Structures are given as C-alpha cells and as structure tokens.
C-alpha cells in the first residue's frame, strides 16, 4: 500500500519470521533427540516457508474481513472472529501435511525418514507459531494503525497545516493517506466479492453439487486403483541426468549381470594370525558356510 501507516511491511516480515522460528525449533528438537541430519533436510525450510506464508495470508484476510463487522469492532472480538474463520483452514492444511510426512517415516530409506521427521515436526511448530506469535503481531500492528503510527519508525503521523497543501504522494508517504485523515479499514477486496457473490452460489447449486460428488467419486476410484498398482522401491536411473554415463551402466548391468545378484564381501575387523593353519581353516570354513 502507498500509505505509510497501513502497508503492513512489518506484518509480512513477521509472517516470514514465524516460519523461520518453526524451522529453528524443529531442527533444534530433532538434533537434540539425535535424529540424523541429512542433506535432503536442507530443502525443508522452503516447504515450511510456503505453508507459513499461506497461513499468514489466510490470517490477514480473515482479520480484514472482521473489520467490516460493526458488532465486532473491539480487538478481542475481531481476533476471535479471525481465528474462527482462519483457524479451521489452517488446522486442516497442517493436519494433512503432518500426516503425509509422518507416514513417510515408515519408509525403509533412512534419508527419507529423517527428512520426513524434520519436515513434519516443522509443520507442527509452524502451526503453533501462526496461532500464537503471528496472532499477537496482528494485534500489535492494529494498535499501530489505530494510533496512526508510521510503519517503520512507529512514531505518530500528524497532520500539520503546512502539509495540507502538499501533493497526494507526499501525504501518502509522510501523513498516511492522500485524504490526510487517519487510516480507516479498507473496502472489501474484489476477489472476495467474486467468491462471495458468484463462485459460492454457483457451487451451492444442487446440480453442481451432484456433479462435484460424481467427479470426486471417479477421482477416488481412480486413486484406489492407482494405489493397487504402486510398487515400493527406487530406480537409480531416475537420480541421474538423461545424458549421464550412469544410465547405460545400469542398463548393461541389468542385461548381463542381473542373474548373479548383489556382490557380497566379508571383512575381518580383528588382527588375526593368517600364518596359523587353524586360523586359515577357520576362515575357509566361514567362507564355505557363507556360500
């Protein structure tokens, strides 16, 4: 926003900080519990940032919606209204994400298991920080707006007589609005109007609801069939680029050596007397038993 009072720069920054706190908390907890840190875990912060920023947008949108309800004008009522609208959506998305990643901990691959543990725990912390830390930041930002304070310096923005004749851009940067009045809640966003007036009524039509149920049934049936066709495992060819020498190597290995199985080695970790005939015979017996 052009307004130096209502541009919500600190609010957006705190939303990103909330995601960062979730990453630090989850990584610290997992490292304290002794969970191995693998290189794939380094990708987890980007996932948490995406979900955390999405939750931030939902919270801010619900807060803006509550400002247009005259009967809920005080801060406590507005915050309660915000959580009533936003918490359900945020909770459902968090539960599905956490469930998906914790199911991934059942895999046989240790690196994937560590990645799922770190990321799933980070989603839990992201939810907690959004519901606590970011909610408090919204209230503090609202108090700043109510007192018409500058977003950067938090100093009160006052209208002086000699500023009344300044340009609109000057007033927006130095006073808070072109009208030289303290900041007021904005009108409803056009996208919100679209979903409320057109999108929502369209999908609440009984024929459209029936079509949605049928489409979901077809999707569910296809998903169940797809689950029956899934095979667990990993093809190492998919880990290399298309022009890599690794792909022909694995093709030839499967073509000419697949019948032999994996190579097995036996390592003696102790210092033994190889010159001793008894020791030598023991090693030979061990090799024969292994074969």
UniProtKB/TrEMBL annotation:
How does the protein associate with the membrane? Answer: Multi-pass membrane protein
* GO cellular component, as recorded: membrane
Give the matching PANTHER family.
Answer: PATCHED DOMAIN-CONTAINING PROTEIN 3 (PTHR10796:SF60), PATCHED-RELATED (PTHR10796)
Q: What is this protein called?
A: PTHD3 protein
Q: Which UniProt keywords apply?
A: Glycoprotein, Membrane, Transmembrane, Transmembrane helix
Q: Where in the cell is it found?
A: Membrane
**Positions of transmembrane segments:** 9-38, 44-63, 83-109, 115-140, 207-226
Q: Which residues form the SSD domain?
A: 1-140
Pfam families hit by this protein: Patched
Q: Which domain of life is it from?
A: Eukaryota
Return the similarity comment.
Answer: Belongs to the patched family.
């Amino acid at each position: 926003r052009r307004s130096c009072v209502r541009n919500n720069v600190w609010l957006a920054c705190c939303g990103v900080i909330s995601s960062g706190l979730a990453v630090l908390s989850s990584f610290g907890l997992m490292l304290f519990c002794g969970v191995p840190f693998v290189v794939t875990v380094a990708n987890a912060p980007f996932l948490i940032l995406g979900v955390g920023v999405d939750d931030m947008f939902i919270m801010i949108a619900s807060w803006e919606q509550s400002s247009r309800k005259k009967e809920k004008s005080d801060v406590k009522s507005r915050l309660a209204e915000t959580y009533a609208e936003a918490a359900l959506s945020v909770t459902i998305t968090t539960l599905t994400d956490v469930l998906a990643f914790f199911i991934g901990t059942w895999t046989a691959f240790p690196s994937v298991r560590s990645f799922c543990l770190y990321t799933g725990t980070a989603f839990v912390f992201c939810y907690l920080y959004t519901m606590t830390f970011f909610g408090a930041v919204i209230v503090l930002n609202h108090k700043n707006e109510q007192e018409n304070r500058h977003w950067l310096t938090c100093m009160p923005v006052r209208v002086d007589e000699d500023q009344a004749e300044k340009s609109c851009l000057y007033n927006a940067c130095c006073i808070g609005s072109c009208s030289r009045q303290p900041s007021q809640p904005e009108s409803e966003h056009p996208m919100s109007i679209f979903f409320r007036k057109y999108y929502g009524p369209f999908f609440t039509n009984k024929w459209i609801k029936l079509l949605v149920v049928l489409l979901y049934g077809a999707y569910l049936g296809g998903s169940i069939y797809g689950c029956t066709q899934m095979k667990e495992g990993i093809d190492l060819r998919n880990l290399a680029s298309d022009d890599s020498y690794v792909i022909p190597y694995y093709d030839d290995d499967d073509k000419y050596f697949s019948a032999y199985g994996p190579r097995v080695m036996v390592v003696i970790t102790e210092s033994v007397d190889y010159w001793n005939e008894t020791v030598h015979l023991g090693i030979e017996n061990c090799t024969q038993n292994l074969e």
